[in-house]
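Now for today's protein.

===
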Amino acid sequence: MESIQATKQRFGIIGNSAGLNRAIEKAIQVAPTDISVLVTGESGVGKESIPKIIHSLSHRKHGKYIAVNCGAIPEGTIDSELFGHEKGAFTGATQTRNGYFEVADGGTIFLDEVGELPLTTQVRLLRVLENGEFIKVGSSKVQKTNVRIVAATNVHMFDAIKKEKFREDLYYRLSTVDINLPPLRDRQEDIHLLFRKFASDFALKYKMPTIKLSEDAVNILLKFRWSGNIRQLRNVAEQISVLEQNRTISADVLRSYLPSTGDNLPAVIKTSKSEGDFSSEREILYKVLFDMKADLNDLKKLTMELMKTGNSKEVQKDNETLIQKIYGSDDETPNYEDSSERLQVLSIPQSANTNESYSTPNDNYDFAEEIEEEETLSLHDKELELIKKSLERHNGKRKLAAEELGISERTLYRKIKQFDL
């Protein structure tokens, strides 16, 4: 069995942290077998190195090694990419195409970002893992393949399973062996070592002296959180190598290349709204609407009392709470003598005889009963009512009625036929 140090040298892996060594050791141990492996870790930690180690140390090393970025392939074409398609299977399928599982027969397929696979593709992948069978898109013929699958993801798989974005049975088939690569912030002894390696590589690439960090700059380098992990560290090393004239980098210079929010402080995690939050917001909105409806009904009743009694002061006293709710409450008890202007819109004019209250043509106040009834919101009923009133007002003359309603005479004629007037 190849040693961890020899494997690091062979694949250019830098670092001596315990987490990194454990991940490489597990890769070396499972390489001779055919069991599926799931590599987990944050974006930028170097997950793509593990599948290469596994393939090169396995009996499949002379077969093909294909790396597929599942997140970069559109959902509509990923089945065709992985499993192939027959000619005419869909628009643009002008010829038969072999998928990756057919091409890599006898070799290894690395499925990067496997957590981004659509659910329909996950079902197909599960079948390949269980019995090595797959069907091309547009075909009914079952084909066999002998491939080893190594997958990688930066998604928290149990959260994805809980949200039903990833199949639980597929997860357990993929993760027969789970290899986790630690983030760079958990490999502090490797950070400066990696920076020096990158600085040396870029000095050779751009033909310039290698940059060096001062002691204070090294301390800042080690305390930084590195949310982008090795990829972010490499980018910072390249920027400084190209842009700085002075090849000794101070703490202030290094700090200018680091995001201000990147200190090694507790991370603030923004929690998304749960379905319960949205449900409670709907309940609040409904309550507000119901309260508004109740206030409107109270206002109608107050208006009816004013119209019937004509005694505004008595009504004001009886409805003090409602009046304050409508017009706002003052610090002191309202002066009803001074509130006539406020209630002017609700007052009913008196007749010339002060002892005679204002009366309507219908003393039974039939229309008041109609106001208190539940209003209809049917557009059909409202439209029918307006057309009827307009025709009655103009003695059935469609032209005048149409002008009043703001529609053409032809449209009005169609409405008359529609409503069977």
User: Anything to note?
Assistant: The two ends are 95 Å apart (CA to CA).
